[in-house]
Amino acid sequence: MRKFTSEIGEEDFGKKVTLYGWVHEVRDLGGLVFVILRDREGFAQITLPKKKVKQEVFEKAKNVRRESVVKVVGEVKEEKRAPNGFEIIPEEFEVLNEADAPLPLDVTEKVPAELDTRLDHRFLDLRKHRIFAIFKVRSEILNATREFFHERGFIEVNTPKIVSTATEGGTELFPITYFEREAFLNQSPQLYKQTLMAAGFDRVFEIGPIFRAEEHNTVRHLNEATSIDIEVSFTDHNGVMKYLEELIVYIHERIVENCEKYLRWINVEVEVPEKPFERITYDEALEIVSKKEEIPWGEDFSTPALKILAEYMQGYYFITDWPTESKPFYAMPYEDRKEICKSFDLMKGWLELASGAQRIHKYDLLVERIKAQGLDPDSFGFYLEAFRYGMPPHAGWGLGVERLLMAMLDLKNIREAVLFPRDRQRLVP
Ligand code: ATP
Ligand code: MN
What we know:
Shape: elongated
Mean pLDDT: 96
Strand order of the largest sheet: 6-10-11-16-15-14-13-12
Distance between the termini: 33 Å
Structural class: alpha+beta
Number of strands: 16
Largest sheet: 8 strands, mixed
Radius of gyration: 27 Å
Helix content: 25-40%
Strand content: 25-35%
Bound molecules: adenosine-5'-triphosphate, manganese (II) ion
Number of helices: 12
């Protein structure tokens, strides 16, 4: 099998190898030329002493443009001063595809670039190891999540992303043309995953896109994000909070175990958090916030309010027992205190990572709550029917993949956590 530069080791010293990659740098010292070849996993130093390599090889390497794609065949020699402790003296140096010059973005980062410029030329930006590493971690998170839920008897599902009604009403919807009708891109799999509880699936998870027509540009909102969603029957909010906490710990363990090199590239330290995460109620959070800012009971916390809260709360924590009016219609109110509901947000510092709740499973109460939130029960036809013929009690949550990456890797802007972000201005690339 083809080897990455990082896979070349002592066992290859004295042997001939073939490497494919991009020209990271060319250093021309006259009688000696160095080409630094880069691939996804690392670098290799190609050393060309004029007197020791074929003239044709020497000329090609000396004149190759940065970021061209090359194939190099040569002997591996130990060289302590080179990256990974080896160099290659090439007998073959083939330019598979020459890059144009000048480059729209400097992959070596000697010339710094703004985020917008980076995103405009994202394929070049992603060649940087420290940027690529974010997506290695992301891939590991998704893999760990699938393993976690499969091990616990969950069924992975895929629900439609083209839908006829809003999940929760509201304005954050993208309308689309569906033949002669209007349709929408789904904001969340909520209604479908709940419907699957009525179908008897018992435990489901979905990893999929969610679409939100957020008008505002913030560092934590995207218009297309990826959500990890679960729904579980015969349990309550406490039951699914446990799954969430365990998943977060499991993901951290896996990242620490498998992504050491990539965390080094990103230059971040990841620690496995301890269970159980701290839990505070909405009322307690409000009391902390109100030391510095006035928030009327019942309202969601603003970003400045969450930043105040974050001064007091370290690591991952839950805010529980939210005002019923501040949460979607499907959240289950407490029997003895109907103004609050069995809901929770998972936070890290000021950042919300997930929201969940025990859901209402009784038809009449659900219709009442839909109306109370100013929505029309008639537009929830298929969903409401599922509650009339045997809907079990259930609970669930949705966790934003990009938010989790932001929290774990200390990214300052959520756009860093997606390959090709969609925001208020950006639809390309
Ligand atoms: P926020 O208050 O931060 O805007 P939200 O409460 O509107 O989020 P939910 O509807 O609770 O979001 O969605 C569940 C999770 O999905 C959120 O906790 C978050 O991790 C993620 N998420 C929701 N909207 C976005 C978005 N626009 N961009 C990125 N992630 C999002
Ligand atoms: Mn939320």
